[in-house]
Each structure stands twice: as structure tokens, then as C-alpha cells.
Specification:
By secondary structure, this protein is of the alpha+beta class. Helices cover 62% and strands 15% of the residues. The strands form four sheets. A four-stranded antiparallel β-sheet has the order 2-7-9-10.
């Protein structure tokens, strides 16, 4: 397992080796490319960025908040205030003359005149007022816990992204292995078709000369057709798996890709001594870390509901003024204040919310305990599956090599005319069956190794 990890790490993406028309990928390069370009991975990365913005959004709630406003006011009937009037002494007596008693008795000469004051308007018909207000949160338990919850949510996004990376690597590896095995089968089938075609040609000539029965050639012809059919089926599977790999890499279907890793080398890398397998670590497993982070988040949600019982304290400063002012204006331009909000009674709404948060926390704890047991069993099952796959691979490889030697021997004997075409057909079918069995065993070996790495947090 350690060797495999080193093998993946020492293979950087060789962009210089890629051309405009063809992209070359080793397994490690394909995995890295898919992590960067596959839409699931992109969305997981966006979730992390979203979590960062959410942290800032929550943080900003506790920072100074400045708001401004402009109001337009139209008053059809402006109220007025009247303060009565005043009496003034008037006189028509020429300047320099003495005022006599007769003058005082004559209103045309001297008297008192009452003058009423003009009413004072208490506003203006049209006016525009403006204000600016600064708010600062001084204490809020919900804010403090919410900020911690936002940071934990970001951690959850990071762990989720790592889980996506692991699943993408597993997915790409499975497709990559399948494509290599199909290409290997295609190569072997082409060689078999070429050999059978040559034998059929020679057999046909001999049959035409009457030296052997025509059924001998016909039997070889049937074998050629069956092998060609298998070759065509494999070719179609290669086309499909190639499209699948392009999709997983985030490439267009028209893109051309070449796999640079050799199947035999990948097999050698994934053949490990199970006795040297590192011990299972529950705390390092991505699924356990995901559940643990979820539990922490639910714990904070409980604390958040509890914090709603605490008071909230904030301070503010407000400046307000008008463009048009009445003769008597009582606008207070500067105001400073403190606001204390204390929850008293909400008909049990907070209690219900707190109870629901505690239930969610208990559920996450139960799931964490249950999943911990599952992960232990899954790791042991992955180890046993790999042992079985490894033994099966060795047996199928031995059977394949044996069937190939038998087929080579049968070909040689058939060329000497010591055996019939039926013997050749049986040997060839046995060889093809052994080839398919080896392919299935190889794919199973590589896939179980991937699952083993994933179960032991080595992927």
C-alpha cells in the first residue's frame, strides 16, 4: 500500500508531453486532472468557497454597521402657531408740539393700535431629511456560537471535498484499469485472429487440393468468425470506456486520450504482502472524520439554541438633519444610545427549537457510533477480499499461461497435420476463456486493491 502511494505521488502531470490533439495520462495524472475538472469536484470546491463567504457573513454581523437614509416629505397643510399681537401708541401730533389732555381724548390725535403677529409655520410644505446611523453589537451569545458554527461548517466542506477527491480517484482508477484490460484483450484477440486467419488460409488451400476434408477448413472458419466477433465486442467496449473516462476527466467526447501506464506495471505495484499492511485507523478514515465534524456542528447548534436565552446588547449613534427647516425646528441631530434586548416569554418556541437541536445531536452521535463499527468491518472485509482476489489472480494467471502453451503446442501439431481442426478449436476456445477469466481476475484484483486503500485511508 505504501509503495502504491509513493508510485502515485512521484508521477507529476506531464503537460509538456501533451499535444493539442492528444492528451496523455498516467493513472496519477488522470486522477489529478479529474479532481480539478470533474463537475462534482468543482462543486465541492465551490462549497468550500461558499463556506468561507459564510464565515465572513457571520463575522460581519458583529462588526460596525453603517446605514444611511433619505426621506422626502410633502405636507399639504402645514400647521401654524399663533402668538397673538401687541398694542402700539400712535400719534398725529406734530413733532415738537406738546400732547395735551384734549389730544388724549381725541382718537384722531393719540391712541392705542393693536397689531396681530403673523402666524409661525411649524414645518415646510416640501422637505428632504437625511440620516446616517452606526450600530455596533456589544454582546450576543447567538453571534459568538454562530461564528464558531460557521467555521465548523467550513471544516465540514473541506472534509466533504476530500471525500469527493477520494471517490473520484477510486472512480477514475476503476475506469482506467478497465480500459487497459480491454486494450490488452483487444491486442490478444487481434493476434489470435491473425493466427487463425493464416491457419484457415493454409487449411483452405489444402482442402481445395483434396488432401483433407472441407469440414476441417469450415471448422477453422467458424472459429475465426467467433474470435472476430469477440474482437468487435471488445472494441466497442473500449470505445464506451474511453468515453466514460473522458466524461470523468471533464473532457469533450471529441478529445483524444492516451493511457501511458502499462497494465503489467500497475499489477506489480498493487501486489502487496498483506502482512505488511498498516493497522486500521478509525480517526483517519474520511467517513469517520465527516461524521465527527457533523457531530461538532450539531453540538454548536445546540449551544446556539441555548444562547438565545441570553440578552443581546448593542449601541448606536445617529445623525439626522433636514435640507429645509421651519422657523421653529426641534430636530435632534445627534443621538447616542444603548439597546438591551432580554428574551422573556415566547410560548415555548425556544424550548422546542432547543429540543430539536438536541435530538439532531443525538442522532448524529448514534450514526457516528454505528458507522464506526461498519468501518471496522468494512476494512476487514476489504482485506479478505484482496486476499481472495490475489489468490484468484495467481490461479487464473497460471491457467492462462498453461492454456497459451497448450494452444501453441496445438498450433504446431495442427501444422504438422497430426490433429484435427476440432482439437484446434477446443484449444483456442479454452485459451480465450482463460484470457477472459484472467482479465476478470485482474480487474477484480486492482479494484479490491483500490477499495483496500480506501478502507485503510491510503487512497
Amino acid at each position: 500500500m505504501i509503495c502504491y502511494s509513493l508510485f502515485v505521488l512521484v508521477l507529476p502531470i506531464n503537460t509538456s508531453a501533451q499535444t493539442d490533439s492528444t492528451m496523455k495520462f498516467s493513472l496519477a495524472e488522470a486522477q489529478s486532472y479529474a479532481i480539478e475538472h470533474f463537475f462534482i469536484s468543482k462543486n465541492a470546491a465551490l462549497d468550500i468557497e461558499y463556506a468561507r463567504k459564510r464565515i465572513w457573513e457571520t463575522t460581519a454581523m458583529g462588526l460596525p454597521q453603517v446605514t444611511g437614509g433619505v426621506d422626502y416629505l410633502y405636507t399639504p397643510e402645514v400647521p401654524e402657531a399663533s402668538f397673538g399681537g401687541a398694542y402700539d401708541i400712535y400719534s398725529t401730533v406734530p413733532s415738537g408740539d406738546f400732547v395735551t389732555g384734549a389730544d388724549l381724548q381725541n382718537p384722531d390725535r393719540v391712541g392705542l393700535a393693536y397689531t396681530e403677529f403673523d402666524p409661525i409655520k411649524l414645518g415646510v410644505e416640501q422637505n428632504v431629511s437625511y440620516n446616517i446611523m452606526l450600530n455596533q453589537l456589544l454582546f450576543s451569545g447567538e453571534y459568538i456560537v454562530g461564528l464558531k458554527a460557521a467555521k465548523t461548517y467550513q471544516q465540514l466542506s473541506v472534509v466533504s471535498f476530500e471525500k469527493q477527491r477520494i471517490e473520484i480517484k477510486e472512480m477514475v482508477a476503476g475506469t482506467y484499469y478497465s480500459l487497459l484490460i480491454l486494450q490488452k484483450n483487444q491486442e490478444l484477440l487481434r493476434g489470435t485472429v491473425e493466427n487463425l486467419t493464416k491457419i484457415y488460409s493454409d487449411t483452405k488451400k489444402t482442402s481445395d487440393l483434396g488432401l483433407i476434408e472441407e469440414t476441417e477448413a469450415d471448422q477453422i472458419a467458424i472459429n475465426v468468425k467467433r474470435t472476430e466477433s469477440s474482437l468487435n465486442s471488445v472494441s466497442r467496449q473500449i470505445e464506451f470506456m474511453s468515453r466514460m473516462l473522458k466524461y470523468q476527466l471533464g473532457l469533450n467526447v471529441e478529445s483524444k486520450i492516451v493511457l501511458t501506464d502499462e497494465l503489467d506495471k500497475l499489477i506489480d505495484v498493487n501486489l502487496i504482502d498483506i502482512a505488511n499492511l498498516i493497522s486500521f485507523s478509525l480517526e483517519n478514515h474520511i467517513d469517520y472524520r465527516l461524521l465527527d465534524t457533523q457531530e461538532k456542528l450539531n453540538t454548536l447548534l445546540v449551544k446556539r439554541e441555548e444562547s438565545k436565552y441570553l440578552p443581546t446588547l448593542s449601541a448606536f449613534y445617529k445623525y439626522e438633519d433636514k435640507f429645509e427647516k421651519a422657523a421653529l425646528d426641534f430636530t435632534m441631530r445627534h443621538m447616542i444610545g444603548v439597546n438591551l434586548s432580554v428574551p422573556i416569554f415566547q410560548s415555548g418556541m425556544k424550548s422546542a427549537s432547543l429540543s430539536m437541536a438536541k435530538i439532531e445531536l443525538e442522532k448524529s452521535q448514534n450514526m457516528k457510533d454505528q458507522e464506526s463499527q461498519r468501518l471496522f468491518m468494512e476494512a476487514e472485509q476489504a482485506r479478505l477480499d484482496y486476499l481472495t482476489a490475489f489468490e484468484n489472480y495467481k490461479n487464473e494467471l497460471e491457467n492462462f499461461n498453461l492454456s497459451r502453451r497448450i494452444l501453441d503446442n496445438i498450433f504446431q501439431k495442427y501444422s504438422y497435420g497430426t490433429i484435427s481442426s476440432m482439437d484446434l478449436t477446443l484449444a483456442n476456445n479454452q485459451y480465450l476463456e482463460a484470457q477472459l477469466s484472467l482479465s476478470a481476475a485482474t480487474l477484480n484484483l486492482l479494484n479490491t486493491k483500490i477499495k483496500l486503500d480506501k478502507a485503510y485511508s491510503q487512497l
